[in-house]
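I had to read the description of the data format several times before I understood it. For illustration, here is how one protein appears when written out as sequence plus structure tokens:
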Amino acid sequence: ERYREAVRLFLEDGAYDLVVPVSTPHPSAHSEDRARTLIELARLSKKPILNLWLAGDLGKKGLDILCAAGMATATNAESLLKAVEGVIRLGEMKRAQGAEHDAMGADPMILERFAAYRTARRHNLSEEESKAVLREMGIPTLKGEAAADPMEAVRVAHKIGYPVALKVISTDLPHKSEAGGVRLNLKNEDEVRRAWEEMMRDAAANSPQAAIEGGLVEEFAPGTEMILGIVRDATFGPMVLAGTGGIHAEAMKDVALALPPVSEVRAARMIASLRGRRLLQGFRGAPPADERVLCALIARLSGIAIAYRAYILELDLNPVIFSGGAWRVADALIRLA
């Protein structure tokens, strides 16, 4: 009872933001009682508890009880200090977000579409489907249309204007380039026809189990590339991602993450933290990219992360290209929970 009362007093005292109960070796039954006491007190308090459990072998049953209940528990001082540092950094991130963000409500039509996909057990949307949703959410994409055969691909290319890019449409191929399912900078009708045949042959050979639904013909617009997105963290929920994009994004791992809501001010801090920010400022003769619009786009993604958090498991926009004075999504993947 004295232990319970001591921990309770610290939890109720406004002078403390975090409570760290320390448990030293005691008889097994005593350790189990102490663990259950900590779990009960944690449920009654909004203040975080980080347990330093130094009870050794005698306290193993108590430690098992704490872990099974999902209680944050360290068994040495170094791990505890890292956990405390993490809690402090999380608080700093939340304070840094600021209040400058646009409230965004969920579109009932998009919610209805997501619900239909879920009912049909469609968790991976195709690039064409993903981009259609993005446009409805106010995220600009490159111009493009689906084609069922090379003749239709040529018709779409004439409509969009050369040069164009060609990509396979398949929910089974989230990484189309690796399967040979992308052709870029096609300048005329002959190149489109030849690229279609080669692309379909390569995709089928590299991924024979993939169901290919056709091809996406899209304007080809080289420029400065970024990766933007939403990822779902098991602990913190949806997070907004921004980083250096393109085919080398995974290798470079130059990304910044933030908990939504993310204001344009916070988005600017994310961009400033990237090693590849120099690329946005006009690298090797390329025109400087519009960072203000990029920040607005990141803030928009933050609103999407909040509004559709019950449905979106992952939203991957790579690359988002600055070309012709505008940021537009060149490739997109939406995964639903």
